[in-house]
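Supplementary Methods. Inverse-folding protocol.

Structures were first reduced to a discrete structure-token string of length 291. This string, shown here, constituted the complete conditioning input.
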């Protein structure tokens, strides 16, 4: 689809802002250009007759493109700091003036880019959009296809990491209470209670012995993990709290024989990872203390 000239002019008017936004999210000049180019391609293929706010629409598109790029980068386990350095030391496009590259660099700062690289893709998007571009949480939630409360939590956690404070350790009593609340919510089928306990980016990992499949199972995101917990409600009725290697956990031990262990990792007060082990060899090396 070829857009009319007013629409094209509208995109070109937004291009500098879109590139600045992409650069802050990605920390790479080349990737920022790729993100803006992909946004242009989607813009050119879309019927804009029902788009009331072009700037908001373009912000949504470029944000989702950046999120996908960050996730792809993370899956490849790349270290983008080298890309940052090459960008800053002169790997600018020939068509762009050197002072434009310098202005982009100065607007973020190398130290900030390094800190941002420690954030998860979702944390980085939420932080950049809210704290750097003053976007409202409901708007960011729409862009990221998440709940506003989850986006607010992502931005708050990212802010703490950027400031170097990080989440405070959770005392054992609170961890134990959260584990017991997780078990109770699973047994009763309380989906909302599970969501309040889980970090938005929670990851569940179960070894192959848990599911009987050929490969381990991995689930990501609070919704997927909460649904999985509810599906395991029958198993939860025979699960009890315990201390596993000194940490609050859940175990199954029918007839006194250990068959399954569920361990929890916390970020702040939220459950950020769940590891489920049923492999007999691995269970042998675990120390269990029942309440």
């Amino acid at each position: 689809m070829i857009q009319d000239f007013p629409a094209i002019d509208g995109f070109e008017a937004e291009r500098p802002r879109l590139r600045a936004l992409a650069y802050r999210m990605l920390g790479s000049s080349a990737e920022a250009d790729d993100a803006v180019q992909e946004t242009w391609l989607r813009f050119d293929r879309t019927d804009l007759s029902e788009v009331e706010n072009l700037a908001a629409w373009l912000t949504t598109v470029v944000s989702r493109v950046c999120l996908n790029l960050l996730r792809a980068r993370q899956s490849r386990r790349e270290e983008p700091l080298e890309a940052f350095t090459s960008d800053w030391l002169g790997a600018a496009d020939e068509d762009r003036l050197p002072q434009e590259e310098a202005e982009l660099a100065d607007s973020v700062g190398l130290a900030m880019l390094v800190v941002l690289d420690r954030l998860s893709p979702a944390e980085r998007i939420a932080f950049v959009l809210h704290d750097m571009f003053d976007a409202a949480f409901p708007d960011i939630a729409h862009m990221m296809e998440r709940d506003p409360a989850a986006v607010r939590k992502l931005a708050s956690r990212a802010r703490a990491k950027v400031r170097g404070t990080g989440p405070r350790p959770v005392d054992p009593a609170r961890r134990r209470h959260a584990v017991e609340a997780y078990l109770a919510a699973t047994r009763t089928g309380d989906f909302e209670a599970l969501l309040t306990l889980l970090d938005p980016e929670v990851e569940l990992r179960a070894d192959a012995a848990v599911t009987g499949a050929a490969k381990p199972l991995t689930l990501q995101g609070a919704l997927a993990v909460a649904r999985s917990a509810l599906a395991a409600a029958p198993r939860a009725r025979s699960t009890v709290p315990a201390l596993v290697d000194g940490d609050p956990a859940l175990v199954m031990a029918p007839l006194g024989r250990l068959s399954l262990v569920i361990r929890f990792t916390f970020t702040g007060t939220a459950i950020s990872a769940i590891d489920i082990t049923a492999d007999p060899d691995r269970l042998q090396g675990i120390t269990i203390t029942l309440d």
